[in-house]
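Suppose a colleague, Dr. K., hands you the sequence of a protein chain of 145 amino acids and asks what its three-dimensional shape might be. Before reaching for any lab equipment, you can write down a predicted structure in token form. Begin with the sequence itself:
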Amino acid sequence: MTARVALALLATLVVGCAPQVIRVSVPNGALDLDQFLATHKLADEGGIRVDQIGRVEGASYHLVQVLGSERPHRHDAHDLTVFVLRGHGVLTRLAGPTALAQGDAAVVPRGEPHWFASEGAFPAVALVVFSPPLDAPDAVPLEER
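The predicted structure, expressed as tokens, is then:
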């Protein structure tokens, strides 16, 4: 009986450690995150990459990759909703820093200064919703952190 229990525990651990397939459903259909990231690579030196993956009348949907830190900025015309899909880091806002990891979400109202800094060797990846839809760059840099 103990061998069965040990085998069941081992199987549970192996399944729990298997990579999780993340799918994002957008107005155009489902998107496999791993496949998308394989064809939309962040530059080797890091930074930020923003790719629009969907759009409706009231919002646009973007996959954002961050390795390192964004520059402090605000958006004058857009509210943001951020859903962390992979990785982790710190979102700094007026209220102070907040640690975010896979599965966490944040809302950033238009005009609020903020920036995200990923932690770790791999980029943090987030689904970011801009409302209204993003038509042109709207990141207004801040003078200092």
